[in-house]
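During the practical work, I worked with a single protein chain and the tokens that describe its fold, as given directly below.
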Amino acid sequence: MTISSTARIVTKIGLPAVACLVILACSGEPSFDDTTAATTRASTTTTPATTTSATTTPDSAPVTGDSIEPSTTLTVPEMLTVDVVITDMENPRGVGVDAEGALLIAEAGYGEDADHPILRTGRLTRFQDLDGDGHFLDPREAERWLDNLYSFNSVNKYETGRDEVSGATDVLVHEDGRVFLSLDGGIDQSGGTFILFELDEDGTVLREINQNSNMTGIGFAPDQRSVYATQSTHNSLIEIGLDYGDVRHIVTFEDLHSGQQAVPAGLGVDLTTGDVLVALFSGVAKAEGEACRFVPEAMCDGRYLPLIPTDAKVVRVDPATGSVTDEVTGLTAAVDVAADSAGNVFVVEMAADHAQLFHLGADLFVADLPALHGGYIRFSGRVTMYPADGGDPRVLAEGLDQPTNVTVAPDGALYVSTGQGTPGRPIPGPEGRTEVVGEVLRIEGYK
């Protein structure tokens, strides 16, 4: 799920401020080890689990030009398995699991922002493991349900300088077999295109429920008669009734500690309490006041910062009253959250910091682009488990390339979408130059 606080960003920044963010160089390359020491859930300090391997670069490594190297390679705690079950995808986002164990996966596409529908690249696909090998790599295992969906990139559409692709966003599978897909078609002169699709169990579109804002995360209410949705453009949480499509506003989130907008991203429903867990990604803030503690003194000049490390968090919302309490704090770029039937909470952080924004008008499809991060540090994302019993948090996987979504399957496995950004674009990898590749991972053995 690519996060867009576009309506606020365009109003708040304006073109002159964005234009000065040509290539942003940080003073040092952050890793989660030195940026999230304050991460807490119920006053419990995060302690990463023992990992099988780790490759790091020095904390003082320069973050300039295409010499930047990500700080970690993919690492996992012992006893876990992390498998790539699908690869070569075009910005995979939400994953739903149906009664047959098939995966319904949204892809945001290439981000080309095409006017003609036939050129749009967003899609929804059902993947079924026909050969029983635990993967979905055989082309025969993919059945396209929706195609030619809206797809755009905020780097130019909203002039953010960040390689962020939006389109098909999140997926839910109802207990009766129906499938729901949220779509962000972006904002234009005539307004915006934001749709909640309802499909039957064979992929036929039953209904399109139009909304007035994007739905970066969706989740069923416990009775599955309504859907909760986060709206990053409005910094709000809403409830959509599935009988008549009626909308109820639950809460508008306040700005974060540093003054950043909350920018609600993914959500999860805690079935043990009925509460809604919301990942507040964090948004643009000026380098002044509290925000200055995250930047060198020379940068504390009122410029706009696309991200402030450790300012993101996960909050718990009572959907009946709209009351909000902190669940996990001290996060960076918290992009999605999920909870299992026991109340364990799983949080995805997309990246450890921002780096190397693109200049306005950058063409991300040319072959000779330098290997730049393009907004957020590549291969610095992670997935962390916060046990329901209040035990120490466990980092289940880190060194991920911009993960965006997490889903808890009925069998307890986690499905995580990675590889946000323009497919095939050159980026710095753990072992040198590589490219953006969309993949879905399955994490098992964490209990």
Notes: The radius of gyration is 20 Å. The helical segments are 6-19, 32-35, 154-157. Confidence is low (pLDDT under 50) at residues 1-31, 33-38, 42-72.
